[in-house]
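ugh ok so i messed up the first submission bc i forgot one of the chains. this is the corrected input, ALL of the components this time, i swear. 332 residues overall. if the numbers dont match what u have on ur side tell me asap before i send this to the collaborators (the ones from the other lab, u know who)
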Amino acid sequence: MTPSPYFFLLIFASVALIFPLMPLALAWLWRRFFQPPKPGGAKNATYECGVESLGEAQIQFHSQYYLYAIIFLIFDVESIFLIPFAVAFTGLPFGAFIAILVFLLLLLEGLAWAWGKGLLTWAK
Amino acid sequence: MMEGQVDEGLRSELQRRGIWVTSMQELYNWGRKNSLWPLQFGLACCAIEMIATAASRYDLARFGGEVFRPSPRQADLMIVAGTVTKKMAPQIVRLYNQMPDPKYVIAMGACAISGGPFKQGYNVLKGIDRYIPVDVYIPGCPPRPEALLHAFMELQRKIDEQQLTGKNKAEFLKKETPSEYPVPAFGAHDLEPPANPEVFRPPVLERS
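and heres the new structure output, hopefully the right one now
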């Protein structure tokens, strides 16, 4: 009987599973039989360059940073979309062209708004 | 010959026939000693020598110790390279405490051993071995990279001789050996405790 053509996938998956699990299991067995666990206060504490950590790690950013987020969208994220647009420009159907123009218009609107708000003037 | 070990003569005879005999302990120690990951921190001028040791000319990588880690979680060797000030001592002990077992310490240079030329100073620790157990001491001010390599090889020799079972098994495998040592804090006049008796006992002077 010929095995199913997908049988090698099963072998592949099981090897992929066993290969990383085996060293983990060996390490666990090793620790179980040889090494006594020695947890402790400092050992389990958060590492912060040798000093005791202060405060929480999950902080909230100030809402004033939304300005930076918008400027980042306009100047950085936009360019990612503009490059494929420029590459495929000659072969684009009319609908796609309009779509990207709408996208650009939305971002331009943001730029005009930021400009009007005086965000682009260099802080002295 | 250690108990439970393969007879040396038999081993060499087998090796000549192309059979390599080993024990779990030897294999384990062989793996450990050739893959030491030092903690990446330097305190003073000795650190420059340590950097030179890790760089291409002296090439610590030949001994398997080039992976300097920025986190104590991934390190098993602490090279105390330089003058330990009293302000720095608590951080060093804390970093040592945060390293997973088994962990080793090399005290590099006169300052880390005893305070060195700054021993009389008000702010310098009289040797890091007052707070954490040191495995290898390197004299010198600063020691040359060859000296650090030598210390590294000495440490490898030490690891190679550690036993996993029996009465003389390695310290880190004993339940009663602490993994964390008291972190000194600033008192009114000095660090508190001024010395950790579990680790360091000042030598008794014998005059005849």
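quick check: Chain A has four helices and no strands. that seems consistent at least. Helices of chain A lie at 7-33, 41-44, 66-87, 94-116.
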